[in-house]
Amino acid sequence: MTSHLQTAPQMKCRVYDYHKGSLALAPYGSHWRVLRRLMTVDMVVNKRINETAFLRRKCFDNLQLWIEEEASKLKEGHGVHVARFVFLMTFNLLGNLMLSRDLVDPKSNEGLEFFKAMNGLMEWNGAANMADYFPWLRWLDPQGLKRKMKKDLGKAIQIASKFVKERMEARGVGREKTGDFLDLLLEFEGNGIDEPDKISEHDLNIFILEIFMAGSETTSSTTEWAMTELLCNPETLMKAKAELTQVIGPSREIEEREIDNLPYLQVPFLLPRKAMDDTDFMGYFIPKDTQVFVNAYAIGRDPDVWVDEPNSFKPERFIGSKIDYKGQYYELIPFGAGRRMCAGVPLAHRMLHLTLGILLHQFDWSLDGNVTRDTIDWKDKLGISMRKSVPLLAVPKKCLL
Fold first, then answer.
1. Is residue 245 part of a domain?
2. Mean pLDDT of all residues in the chain?
3. Is 324 inside a domain boundary?
4. CATH code: domain of residue 187
5. 342: annotated binding-site residue?
6. Residue 52, domain member (yes or no)
7. Could you say which of 74, 79, 206, 372 would form a disulfide bridge with 394 (CB–CB 3.0 to 4.6 Å)?
8. pTM exceeds cut of 0.85
9. Could you tell me if residue 215 is inside a domain?
10. What is the pLDDT of residues 162-185, one digit of tens each?
11. Is 86 in contact with 393 (CB distance < 8 Å)?
């Protein structure tokens, strides 16, 4: 059915024509193919990911330093906000890949304006909007989501445009190219027939913003949920740490190339879709332009597939299983499937496993002194991804010499 579906832009995403420059929301066609090709062939291909390993190492070193410094300021038994530091680290990593610069510093206000605008965009993008289901409410904007989106998106576009203009001016005076993602976008040359000669400034800005939105919150919220599950399942946590000690050793830092040697470590609704044509699917008739929600949460917990306690946290269920997350097995589709699946999977694979591996290998963790396994809050809230409603606070103790 994926060949008959495209992503359905919601009303609030039409502000500043965001949906027209978006890879995630653009209708299937030449524009979408150009953006998809740039992402999968030029930006997140394994060769380029390997070439930027030093940038991820720098950002991960900063993550460890930030956590240590924050823990040293807190009273004994008080935890650090795990997701906050992972979010900041990922934001800077994407800044280095995209723009060759750090964008935020938790110890200063540097980059705070851009960070706040992007954080707002992620929150409003994930919020359910009544006007999407009752079109006659659109002009009222009853929840104020369009107004909030317009404010934060306008600020974010303004700042992204500044980044682009600074780079174009630097290239104009002959400054050496950086070879980052922005350079790749500026150097794009289309055939001028079924694709543009150049990517427009509007689409450049939206593309930059979308990479930050797609990469930062998803990494931090996934890491936070994983850490929460591990801290509430100490036997599983000990297995993961034991594997790290056995493969990496007790006094050496984990490297990206070692992720594949850590099988135990590797073990929400998707974006709404819209039927491009009248479609018959499994006995159902889906009219053209029908909005379709794929319940990835239910698919991943289908008791007919996951017979061994599908709602329990059991990473070992994937050991020896042929099922993976890469879109070929519809029993598990966290990144989607088909030609509209997440274009950043290769980078996400490195980022998620390395983030969790470093946190577990560098530190021993325990729950904040005010929380136990029985009292921890599991409520969630919507954003770009499913966030924890009450952030995880965990106590780190440095364990790697």
1. no
2. 82
3. no
4. 1.10.630.10
5. yes
6. yes
7. 79
8. no
9. yes
10. 888 888 888 877 777 888 899 988
11. no
